[in-house]
Amino acid sequence: MSTVWLHLRTSPIRWALPAFVVIDLAVLFLRNRHWIGVWPETGAAAQVPAYLLGIVGAGAAAWSAGASQRHGLTEQVRAARVPPMVSEAHRLGATVIVLLIPYLIGQATAFAVTARTFPPGVHLWLGYLLLGLFTILTSVALGWACGQLFGPVFAPLAATLGFLFLTTLLDRDGSVVISGRPEVAVDPLPLALRLGSIVALILVLLWLPAAAASGPVRRRTWLLVPVALPLVVVMLGTDVVADRKPPGTRVTCVQGSATLCIWPEHEKYLPQLRALNARIDLLPDAFVRPSRINEVGLQKTRYIGPDGKEYLGYEEGPPIFYILEGSPWSYAGDIGTSISASTFGYQDEGCDWQRITSSDEPRLWALDAWLEVFLAGGGSPNSHTNAPAQMQQAWAEGRAVAGNPSRAAQFRWAEGEVNELRGRYCPTRR
Q1: Separation of alpha carbons 64 and 73, rounded Å
Q2: Which residues are paired to 292 by β-bridges?
Q3: Residue 330: is its pLDDT beyond 60?
Q4: Confidence of residue 409 (pLDDT cuts 50, 70, 90)
Q5: Is residue 54 within 8 Å of residue 136, measured between CB atoms?
Q6: Which pLDDT belongs to residue 68?
Q7: Edge-to-edge strand order for the sheet containing 292-295?
Q8: Which of 364, 418, 370, 365 is nearest to 391 (CA)?
Q9: Helix or strand or coil: residue 382?
Q10: To the nearest whole number, what is the mean pLDDT of the chain?
């Protein structure tokens, strides 16, 4: 341990440690703060900086692995009393420690902020903590391999670019986690396989002699293939983040004319959902409320698809809504869409929405926009859209109605639109 501390004190990367801490905390707090008060979101947000630290870690590990070759000490290292594997392990350990310090500080800070309310699901935070640890170890392993295979100048560049490429590749596959929604969680088995595989790869890398470009290292690098192959298979063949089982009786619901149910980990949104549900109760009687609306993932049902096969999903169950980055517009829009679907019976046989005219369709869009703004409590959606101009114009008209200070006038307009459109296209629906 004293030798690791010596390498840590002499490593040039140690001077960047304060900057790493600042970067980690900046990414944590400046990106957004919806994660505060939700354990899975807290863990996911705090592990995002691991990808940035990994870029530095890959280059630093490559630089450290090629130290003996860079300083012309290859023969001295081979002849030293300390085995080359131990010497390299000390340098690698120092690199890992320098990268782990800012990462753990960020995770500890995030933990402390959310622990003030201590919501359910703290075990979900731990999974994302370990996932970030795997990211850092992967960057170090990649850098160490580049340091042993390439020249001392080219190795850090190759390692840095290699880690960027790997991150991009995994991001396309959905393996780069930037959000910890409560309906998903880190799967312990794929995570354990990843950690075990990367530790095995690091041990083999340390066993390879820290030599220059002469024969031994390059002749023995074929041993990396059977060790790295399981890691590649696990990373590409398994999903480290998987759907969670529904919470069953532990589900949290808000009662009203429509029952809104959420994951226990999202209890911080109960006050907002109670206010939204109170607005649902105020809607004119022309609007048909679904009896229950679930947050996504709470309840899946088995249904038969058009191809005759059985699927597990939401098509035959209660309507669903998302809470995306804490935005009230995400769940207000989804809940409004569910109410519109129940009101107008888009799936009912007694309705014929296929023959809707080009002048009536914008009226539906305007009504949807009004309902979204009303349920959200006013304001304007905080998102951009590339929807057709006609649709955006209809939305603007609906939001303008929602801006009317007279709620009675809003309700008269909305009820009139519902009755007229439903009477025109759903003559048998009451």
Answers
A1: 13
A2: 259
A3: yes
A4: very high
A5: yes
A6: 56
A7: 252-254, 259-262, 292-295, 320-321
A8: 365
A9: coil
A10: 85
Contact 183, 263 (CB under 8 A): yes
Give the tokens for residue 69.
Answer: 């070759």
* Model confidence pLDDT, tens digit, residues 79-129: 455 566 677 777 888 888 889 999 999 999 999 999 999 999 999 999 999
247 φ/ψ angles, rounded to the nearest 5 degrees: -75, -5
Q: Hey, what's the torsion of the CAs at 13, 17, 19, 23, to 10 degrees? A: 110
Token pair of 370 as six digits: 């009004």
Q: What is the pTM of this model?
A: 0.88
Q: What tokens were used for 430?
A: 């009451």
Q: Which two tokens stand for residue 212?
A: 């220059």
237-256: burial string, b at 16+ Cβ within 10 Å, e else? eeebbeebeebeeeebbbeb
Q: Are 5 and 88 in contact (CB under 8 A)?
A: no
Those residues whose C-beta lies under 8 Å from the C-beta of residue 9, and which sit 6 or more positions away, are none
CB-based burial label for 257 (10 Å; 0-12, 13-18, 19+): middle
Residue 247 and residue 264: Cα distance in Å, rounded? 8
- As given in the structure block, the two tokens for residue 88 are 């390299």
HEC-encoded secondary structure of 24-66: HHHHHHHCCCCCCCCHHHHHHHHHCHHHHHHHHHHHHHHHHHC
